[in-house]
Amino acid sequence: MDLQKLEQFLKDNNQPKFRLEQIKKAVYQDGISAFSEITTLSKDLREALEKEMKVLSFEVKKVLPSNDGNSAESLLELSDGKLIESVLISPKPGLWSVCVSCQAGCPVGCRFCATGKMGFKRNLTAEEIADQVLFWRQYLQKNLKFKISNLKLTNVVYMGMGEPFLNWEQVSESIKILTDKKLFGFGSRSLSVSTAGIAEGIEKMAKEFPQVNLAVSLHFADDEKRGQYMPINKKDNLESLKKALQKYFEITKRKVFLEYIMLDKINDSAEDAKKLADYIYSIGKLQLLHVNLIRFNATPETSIENLKPSSKNQTQFFKKELENRHISITIRKSLGEEVQGACGQLATH
Ligand code: SF4
């Protein structure tokens, strides 16, 4: 919801100051999805708000829930017609996470990523980012397919379309909205930002939001291969990423998640595992680094690359190789795959 516009609207309509707080409470805490539902406002004001203002800054074009009711993907149309996707996932019964997009498309162009194949359309505003969480909260409250007795939307991950550090101004504003006690009221530790590895951004985040979780899409521990599949590596190579992480640990002393997408015969050999372990040891702070192995999800957008997911056996082997070197590691369960909302799958098809 555009709070500045709302404030101006109330001022122009000679409304007392407490109206703004009343509306904020109704939208962000009570979960209403239309101004007409705010019964504490006069009928005239409700009608005027319905005419002039919008609760959400986009139109919901499609919602695709999975058959098991554990995830859903939405297609959202921004005011200029650009399309984005946003995903709702239940990691545990009764708990829900929202995966938000921060850009329409993405300029980074990782070869294994459906969003990267779309190209870059534009940055989202803080309101467009935060409204994705608002939308899913409304959806959970309304939708009977999700039979939830104690609904809890507990986490927000910046892991949808786009690279958060290439739209940092708006992403940081949206973090402020999500952690504002009078609005969403999330704790900082309930939020996670995932980056393809922009060193400058990592340092900025450490200073501005030391309690927000950080995930780095590493995927390769070899500059040559990483450069081939992730063009960002040409600007921020493994050495500069290492320095940024060391700085991050100095400031925050918090754990960082290294995401590693398992690509058949590309980055899943014993040698790749050794390189990854060596890289982690070179960063230091072994106890603060955790590797998540992610299954690659092929999509029509990435079919041109002819990439395949590593087999289960190879993934287990890779994990064991890392464990033998005392690296903390898990194979991440791929939620949302059925609705094509898993990592690297968001494209506005
Ligand atoms: S993986 Fe992330 S950074 Fe890379 S192209 Fe996809 S959305 Fe952009």
Task: Tell me how many strands there are.
Answer: 12
Low-confidence stretches: none
- What's the total helix number? 11
The portion of residues assigned to helices is 25-40%
Cα radius of gyration in angstroms: 21 Å
What are the SSEs and their pairings?
Blueprint: H1 3-12, H2 18-29, H3 43-52, E1 58-65, E2 71-78, E3 83-92, E4 95-99, E5 103-105, H4 114-118, E6 120-123, H5 126-142, E7 152-158, H6 168-179, E8 191-195, H7 199-208, E9 213-217, H8 223-229, H9 238-252, E10 256-262, H10 270-283, E11 289-295, H11 312-324, E12 328-331
Parallel strand pairs: 4-7, 7-8, 8-9, 9-10, 10-11, 11-12
Antiparallel strand pairs: 1-2, 2-3, 3-4, 5-6
Helix pairs in contact: 5-6, 7-9, 10-11
Give an account of the 3D structure.
The protein is α/β, with parallel strands linked by helices and 349 residues long. It folds into 2 domains: 3-52, DNA polymerase, domain 1; 58-331, Aldolase class I (TIM Barrel, Alpha-Beta Barrel), CATH 3.20.20. It contains 11 helices and 12 strands. The protein has helices at 3-12, 18-29, 43-52, 114-118, 126-142, 168-179, 199-208, 223-229, 238-252, 270-283, 312-324, and strands spanning 58-65, 71-78, 83-92, 95-99, 103-105, 120-123, 152-158, 191-195, 213-217, 256-262, 289-295, 328-331. The strands form 2 sheets. A 10-stranded mixed sheet has the order 1-2-3-4-7-8-9-10-11-12, with helices on one face. Strands 5-6 form a two-stranded antiparallel sheet. Helix 5 packs across helix 6 and helix 7 runs parallel beside helix 9 (238-252). It is elongated. The chain binds iron/sulfur cluster. Residues 106, 108-110, 113, 115-116, 161-163, 196, 217, 344 line the site of iron/sulfur cluster (SF4).
